Amino acid sequence: MKIHQIVMAAAAASVASIALAGASFAASSADKLAQYQPTGKKVNCVDTYQIRETDVIDNQNILFRTSGNTYYINHLPNRCSGLKMQDGFSYTLRGLNKLCNVDTITPVSTGGAIYGPCPLGEFEEVTKVGKPTQ
Length: 134
Hints:
This protein has helices spanning about 30-35, 85, and strands spanning about 5-10, 15-20, 35-45, 45, 50-60, 60-65, 70-75, 90, 100, 105, 120, 125-130. By secondary structure, it is mostly beta strands.
């Protein structure tokens, strides 16, 4: 599983950049997606200060875990070349500490490859299947 650590970069009040990098997962993307059940609740934005981890599932799906162990899947409207292979991405905020479906991400290359920006989709809240209720 690839869990990404948030690495904050220097940012202005209205523009912030955050790079995410991570370690390796064993499960396939279909297996990972099957571990989460959609709740039907969709939001356009998540507060960046609440993002605790991300998991690049494949070139079109990213799992976000926010504070309070709330999970969101962002299903990008198009495949994002290099996203899974690089397993990390950066983004620039245009608003106030929110990552939204109108924002783009760019795969972070450690080997010099250049990737274009990819638009985000809506954030759909999901619950972990088989997770005991507290």
